[in-house]
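Subgroup meeting minutes
Present: P.N., E.W., G.H.
Scribe: E.W.

1. P.N. recapped why we're keeping a running log of single-chain structure predictions: easier to compare across weeks, and new members can see raw inputs and outputs side by side.
2. G.H. added today's entry (220 aa).
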Amino acid sequence: MGDTAHIVWDWNGTILGDSGALIAATMDALRACGFPSITRADYQRHHCQPIPLFYERLVSRTLDAEEQLRLDECFREAYARHRSAVSLTADASAALRRWADTGGTQSLLSMYPHPELLPLVSAAGIASYFARIDGSTGTDLAHKAPHLARHLRCLGLEPWQVLLVGDSVDDARAAQECGVRCVIYHAGEDALHAREHFAQLGVPVVSSLQAAVDAAGGAP
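Output recorded in log:
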């Protein structure tokens, strides 16, 4: 395992292979709200946190509170439709099992609402792999760094022991802010970000979750 004793996994777009659904739902929401259509490349080029800023980047103007609320409602409706076709990332179960077999520990940290996250993880049959599962609880929703810091404190871990595996710039910045190593999983044409976003941050990018375990020092 090297110095890495624990992997913190992200959920949406990492363990759960829903990045394509997130992109499609955003496209649907913009169309339903009467905004100009966007391409997948537009989405990847402009993607950022917090989401209200992302929406403004997509439409190239400031949005008022009513417009933001309507977009959020349309997105949630569209995502619920696309969610039915979503499954775990292809090698997620194998990567979790492989890391567990090394004797390392792992946990799940997501910005997805906590009460909704727990049944999804349980239904996927992977909850037993995680020493802790934390979703968002309604505060500090703009960025992941405060959640990561709290997550590590609850687990009693030092930053040098941990590798964060995520798929977003916010994951990478949270890791940097907390002094944690990070590897980014990039889902190719379904990824939320253009690869250039991560090159600017100097964060390693991998094309599979098994490769992320390799980065943590997992045995072949």
